[in-house]
Design a protein that fits this description.
Number of helices: 7
Distance between the termini: 12 Å
Shape: elongated
Number of strands: 0
Number of domains: 1
Largest sheet: none
Length: 228
């Protein structure tokens, strides 16, 4: 970093705060929406969304805020880890930006799910059951779009985890944990594509190590910053 720039420690701590916002808003989105979705029941799901439209919209807004924070965090990680390997740091940043773009696009499916349940005049051309089925289909489409985005995010975790491991700026265990998180995301996302039932079975198992890896890096960035 050039003279006059903020110190690496300041960048790291700001990155940790951004990471915390990302984790909190990400959990809010998943838990908030999850409480409105009744698996395999479009009619019940539609009823819950209509009754809590504000919550549905709030989770989408929260996700867009956390994606904006993710762009800034990617830039900070690139700046911090560039001395350990500029080419690899750039690769990790591109993987993360591709993931962010895909996830942002997938949120359109959540808005579509809401639009199908609206009161617009043109929607009267469809039967209520058809509109509910299309809304539920949009929710399923979002789940797969999010899964696709995690393939790129998982690759980014592998690259940044390797750079953290070899840089000496952070404890090596953080790099290992982040790479484990990347492997978990890749396994879950590819399972979702080729063996959905298997993905449902392993989801709780892959979620825990992925969360631990990201949470550990977040806490270290906030509390310790970066080693000089």
């Amino acid at each position: 970093m050039r003279d006059g720039d903020a110190s690496p420690a300041a960048y790291a701590r700001f990155g940790g705060v951004l990471y915390l916002i990302i984790i909190v808003l990400g959990l809010f989105g998943e838990v908030g929406r999850g409480g409105l979705i009744v698996t395999g029941d479009p009619a019940a799901t539609a009823a819950r969304i209509r009754a809590s439209e504000w919550l549905w919209r709030a989770t989408i807004a929260g996700n867009l805020v956390h994606l904006s924070c993710a762009v800034a965090l990617t830039a900070i990680l690139y700046a911090l880890l560039r001395p350990a390997g500029r080419g690899l740091a750039l690769m990790g940043a591109f993987f993360d930006l591709a993931s962010i773009a895909l996830e942002a696009i997938s949120k359109l499916a959540l808005l579509a799910a809401l639009f199908f349940l609206g009161r617009a005049e043109y929607l009267k051309a469809l039967e209520p059951a058809q509109r509910e089925a299309l809304s539920y289909l949009s929710i399923r489409l979002h789940a797969y779009g999010f899964g696709l985005s995690l393939i790129f995010f998982g690759c980014g975790c592998l690259v940044f985890g390797y750079l953290i491991f070899r840089s000496g700026f952070f404890p090596r265990v953080l790099g290992i944990l982040l790479q484990v998180a990347g492997v978990c995301y890749l396994v879950n996302s590819f399972a979702l594509l080729v063996a959905p039932r298997f993905a449902d079975a392993i989801f709780p198992l892959v979620l825990v190590p992925a969360f631990i890896g990201e949470a550990a890096l977040c806490v270290w960035l906030i509390v310790k910053g970066v080693r000089r």
